[in-house]
Amino acid sequence: MISAILCAAGGGVRTGFSENKVLRPLFGSPALLYSLSALYQYADELLVVCRKQDVPFLLPMLSPYPKAKLVEGGKTRGESVYLGLKAAKGELVLIHDAARPYLSETLIEACIACTKQYGSGVCALPFTDTAAICKGDEIVSNPPRSELYTVQTPQGFYRAPLLEAYESARREGKLDLFTDESGVYGAYVGRAHIFEGTRENRKLTYADDFFCEERVGFGTDTHAFAHAEEFDRGIARLNLSYIKLCGTLIPSSRELQAHSDGDVAVHALMDALLSAASLDDIGHYFPDTDVAFRGADSMQLLAQVMEKIRSRGFAVQNAGISILAETPRLAPYIEQMKENLRTALQTPFVAVAAGTNEGLGYIGEGKGITAYAVVLLRQRTVIK
Known about the structure:
By secondary structure, this protein is an alpha/beta fold. The protein has 2 domains: 2-207, Alpha-Beta Complex (Spore Coat Polysaccharide Biosynthesis Protein SpsA, Chain A), CATH 3.90.550.10; 211-380, CATH 3.30.1330.50. Helix content is 31%, strand content 28%. The chain has 12 helices and 17 strands. The protein has helices at 32-40, 55-62, 77-87, 105-118, 159-171, 181-188, 228-236, 264-276, 282-285, 298-311, 334-345, 361-364, and strands spanning 2-8, 25-26, 29-30, 45-50, 68-72, 92-97, 120-126, 133-135, 138-141, 149-158, 194-196, 211-224, 242-245, 248-251, 314-324, 350-355, 368-380. The protein has a 7-stranded mixed sheet with strand order 5-4-1-6-10-7-11, sandwiched between helices.
């Protein structure tokens, strides 16, 4: 029998929130529910160790989970885990922080397997930064990085020896000296065995760690090439003819018809940004009936859209644009397009792809260019 103990009795002081951080919404649901639902399918019982004042909020959340029950925690993490261990009935226990909502099935399975094989299974990541031991503001020594790990949860143990270790630590008044279960186990039972964790399994510690939501937006736009008579006129002044895509001037035998500068790729991108933020389309903000936008620089219009996005608390996580054009050849200009957009969107994650339409339709006949764009916006909130 496996018992899962979900530690949710902390106050989350470093977030600055007035209530328990694991009850705060994360992508629309309380943060605690993500790890609870992940552990639930592996546990025969699930104990949520919580503060007394959080019980009225937690009880409705647990109603869809009949194997879950609440256990009142203590004033410290060590005391809360001890109370959870006393209430648990399983031979094997999995202990996890409710403030780590990105728990995966892979990590849970690895924890169980490691515990069954070695008697303990502690999720840990190799240390990647240079480590330093300091006194005050001075570095005393630099321990070898190869021997250091950052310890996460879940942590798995056989319940009986771990409970005995906790009782010994309590009798000696040392329980609060330990910051996690592996420390107690190591002091009173033996060396704990680790398995490799993931960077995604991060802990919600500060207000910035709560991404209120992510939104995806899609946009498309099409511009036709100039008509035949305009094409002939373009040939006569070939050295002056170009199109603009993602703010990059590209030589072309024909220009695109447009009220502004005809940057079809940026227009698709602006619509994607606006739709992700639940705003109106570009025609609403920059109508082609307004002479103020005649010949307008689309990159400057994009800057205005970005202001609207930021004013709603969003930042661009990544963006992708696909341009379909039979002519001109765009490959030599892709890198410059991406660089322009990285600066405008303030993100390094920008992709621009170009292709033809294999001679089919208006694109294949060289009558116009179509662009598609997709963006991911992420919103950070700090709610006091």
